[in-house]
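Minutes, methods subgroup
Present: GH (chair), OT, SY

1. OT presented the first of two proteins processed in the latest run. Sequence and structure tokens recorded below as shown on screen.
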Amino acid sequence: MGLRLGSIVAALGGVLHGNPDLLMDGLAPLASATGSQLSFLGHPQYQNQLAESQAGCVIVSAPFQALALARGACIVADQPYLYFARVTQLWKKSLPASAAQRIHPSAVIDAQATVHPTARIGALCVLEQGACIGADSELKSRVTVGENCRVGERCLLHPGVVIGADGFGFAPNAGAWEKIEQLGAVVIGNDVEIGANTCIDRGALQDTVIEDGVKLDNLIQIGHNVRVGRHSAMAGCVGVAGSATIGAHCTVGGGAIVLGHLTLAAGVNISAASVVTRSIHKPGAYTGMFPIDANAAWEKNAAALKQLAGLRERLRALEAQVKTLSDST
């Protein structure tokens, strides 16, 4: 199996410098690629690896064309990382088609669930009453789609995903908890990918909504009534609490937390391990974490932080005294 350089460029564009008949039998990083494998330079910081790479061909941007040619064949493209992503898609299409059944015999599908004829349902999946799976979507093994939850077209749900678990809603009652029934559902748009063991809770009254093109990593928790805007992406172990609204084209780094009932504007980028405690109304990059340090130093800094409010008031008082003295002279 493999692809010839000429066929890659014919399908994806770019400018080939090298033999179009050269066969690539694999894709690999610069540092480990062999003479029969295709690689790419996605960031200038790896240009030293480019000079030493044994790859049969490397995808580069125009500024690195000369450096790439000094070591062998290359494909010049405006966005090498994006080009490489499309090569992986082309590569997957060239692989032999799977002979697996469209719906695995172990899947449990309620009679009132709807599965498009082009969708694929993996082993041990459960589709409850009123669930709906759109065209060309694929559910890997052990995915659960709860009652009345909808998955759009061309979606990919990895193993263990749960769509439509009850949201975490309880009312206090004389020292105990009274359950608030979760009467909404989950609506997932088109071209959404959801990583393994991620859970998206159904809404309490209105639906939880994941808009078109959203990409969620593994082990993410999306609370009830959350709305995630189109083409936003979240890395592993992110937690989004109930009724938060995340705009389009946002990113949330791994392990970050977004508290409930907050709003993130479109184009907000949250750093890994941050805790978002207030709404953010302007696009940009935001970080909310305390830098790691030796424990003794961290404890001293934490103790100082507790005194900031008092120090602020003392500073204001001193500023007022200085102003008074200045005005009197």
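2. SY then presented the second protein from the same run.
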Amino acid sequence: MQQHSAGGGAPAVTYSLATRRIVLIVSTMSAFITPFLVSSVNIALPTIGKEFALDAITMSWIVTAYLLAAAIFLVPFGRIADIYGRKKIYMIGTLVITTSSFLAAHANSSVMLISARLLEGLGAAMFFGTGMAILISVYPLQERGRVIGINVAGTYLGLSLGPFIGGWLTNSFGWRSIFMIIVPIGIIILALLFWRVTGEWSDAKGERFDLGGSLLYSVAILAVMYGFSQLPAMAGFILILAGIILLALFIAWELRSDFPVLNMKLFRSNIAFTFSNLAALINYSATYALTFLLSLYLQYIKGFNAQHAGYILIFQPVMMFLFSPFAGRLSDRVEPRLVASLGMGLTAIGLAMLVLLDSSTALTYIIGSLVLLGVGFALFSSPNTNAVMSSVSKRFYGVASGTLSTMRLTGQMLSMGIVTMIMALFIGKNMITPENFIMFIKSIKMAFTVFAILCALGVLASLARGRVHTEEPGQG
């Protein structure tokens, strides 16, 4: 019979093997959905852009809208899940992202499509901040690295199949079919949770939700993210400054709050937590826009269709899928910061190789870079996640998972912001046509230069975290 967690001060409990397996299956399926959507939509962007006659900047917003909504709501929903129940919020999030995918498939304009992507981001915020927390709640410490590795492999499977299936679906049935395929997956997840997983996880039950802090946080993130996408216009700088001021007010508010939405003590007194999250922020800032850029490059410059471009892009996530379980198990035995730092270093080398891209670059060179990037990212992600979740007590699992996911999405948003700004400087609000291919390639080279430097600096943040806890932490 399954035993259920009671609260922050409750003793450790044991869950049945069947419950643990169902939770692992469900969390891995949901970990698959979002990266699949992201990577498959990236491969379909030129087709979507052609149907709606979109310029490069507007095409980037089909990706950015999702990231913006997810980043704004991740931490608040992580805290809400800790208080009111992780399973409950997880199920609502799955329902929202399933419904919004259906709406995206039936969009008749770019405005409707971007709006549906915003709603998808809201749903993703609900299960991003809870899925990993539920998984960690039911597995003992000694198995944590292994199951995190499996969960991360689900993410990389989504990334792997996204370009391949997305390209095939786009060519065979149109880009709308990419969104429709999410609907049955979401229904299966809801069915498994409803009928096979009983009970609830709410380790902060009874604590008050910090509405004022949540509003400050959300508005600050919105100002910074949207402002970054508006650079180099003056409005962009003004929005970023306003966002930074609001973030400072948010930190001051949280330090005085009895029940903060984001416990700043986790950053102030927990070096492993702080630098592991910083390393994640830097890594995703340096790597996320890779698929977006290479998808456009392969289709516009190399002349491949969506399906063939997907065949090439699949090399990176396949390496992630193959190596992430190994990296997770390795981080159970070897200090996670060493494994993660090695992965970050390999990623920096792979990005530096892509700085040399031009119209005559051989496909074997591109594939070699993608393989190196895939191995590097796999070695970084699972150990880094293990380090974050092992550095806090169980009552902070939702907040820790939400914070790490926020670092990931904030990094992804910054990555797209950097690309949007560079494209605005080199191409402007023009469609990508043969007349501006030279400037397009220059923008790609500049972006990968910035990303390689960022990733190299990230190695320092990864090494600076020190040793992580090897026992169940106390109160974070």
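Chair's summary of item 2: The chain has a mean pLDDT of 82.
Next meeting: continue with the remaining queue.
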